Amino acid sequence: MARLHGTNAKYHLEACRCLPCSNAAAEYDRSRRRAIAYGRWRPFVDAEPVRAHVRELGEAGIGWIRVAKLAGVSTGGVSKLLYGDGPRNLGPTRRMRPHVALALLAVEATLDNMGARVPIDGTGTRRRLQALVVKGWPQSELARRLGVGRANFGRTIVSNLIQVSTVRATRVLYDELWRVDPVNQGIPAHRANAARRTAAKRQWAPIGAWDDDTIDDPGACADWTGQCGTPEGYRAHYRLHIPACEPCRHAQADHRAQLKAA
Ligand SMILES: [Zn+2]
Ligand SMILES: [Zn+2]
Fold first, then answer.
1. How far is the CA of 203 from the centre of ligand 2 (A)?
2. Tens digit of pLDDT for each residue in 187-200?
3. What gap in Å lies between CA 77 and CA 55, rounded to an integer?
4. C-alpha 218 – ligand 1 centre gap (Å)
5. Spacing, Cα 6 to ligand 1 middle (Å)
């Protein structure tokens, strides 16, 4: 299950931004794009980048038969591409027709087509579940609605890597619940309050601290105040009785340093 650094898979599936992973992802991107450009005008194209792409999709839990279907090309062709064929197997395909190559290169791993059990970056899932607890949804209730055990849920809400199926289910659950008051849905008020207290103790960010662009981005920080990352944000934390977040503490330190220097 552990993916190596220096791979495109770790970059895309786990959002690892270390230098080796970033380099591997950039190189893979370049080679895929070059192959797409060649495929537009040559009668035959090199099969290697296409093979590499199909293997990358395999890393995302999309098997080659599935890839063939998604691309609308024959499974026989993809089998030859990966394994070669015939009694005198001359090895995997070296050159291929550009329309087949382009169709295969066009298939990309998305949350919808990835394998259900593939572990991927859990940033957005963690933040969604934590934000629902801030809203007063008890963890046991969220676990029940997700159909996972309480212990399993306890790990999910803090883990770095989460299975694709849970990532998908959490998005659906979040879209369903983010505007819904748990007490109106039969959750006793004292349990909703207990959930909110747990969330406050752990400094979990509320729904309003995220938007669609930031919630899945591991590089993004919660915007607690609407001005986080600025000296005004730092002051807003005090007004709102929320402990200052890291970007605000930095902004405030920079601000003070500038005042001193002036
Ligand atoms: Zn890495
Ligand atoms: Zn802040």
1. 12
2. 999 999 999 999 99
3. 15
4. 14
5. 6
Task: Identify which ligand lies nearest to the alpha carbon of 251.
Answer: 2
Burial of 20 (0-12, 13-18, 19+ CB in 10 A): middle
**Cα(229) to centroid(ligand 2), Å:** 6
Q: Do 160 and 200 lie in a common domain? A: yes
| Same domain, residue pair 190 and 243 | no
pLDDT at 12 (0 to 100): 92
* Residue 83: both structure tokens together: 């394994």
Is position 43 within any domain? yes
**What six digits make up the tokens of 72?**
């609308």
In tens, the pLDDT along 116-154 reads 999 999 999 999 999 999 999 999 999 999 999 989 999
pLDDT tens digit sequence for 54-73: 999 999 999 999 999 999 99
Question: Are residues 157 and 131 part of one domain?
Answer: yes
pLDDT at 1 over 70: no
> Is 151 within 8 Å of 182 (Cβ atoms)?
no
- The C-alpha atoms of residue 128 and residue 211 are separated, in whole angstroms, by 11
- 8 A C-beta contact, residue 132 and residue 174: yes
Task: Name the closest ligand to CA 231.
Answer: 2
Domain that holds residue 262: 223-262
Tell me which DSSP letter residue 209 carries.
G
One domain, residues 17 and 100? yes
Mean pLDDT of the chain: 93
What spacing in Å lies between the alpha carbon of 236 and ligand 1's midpoint? 36
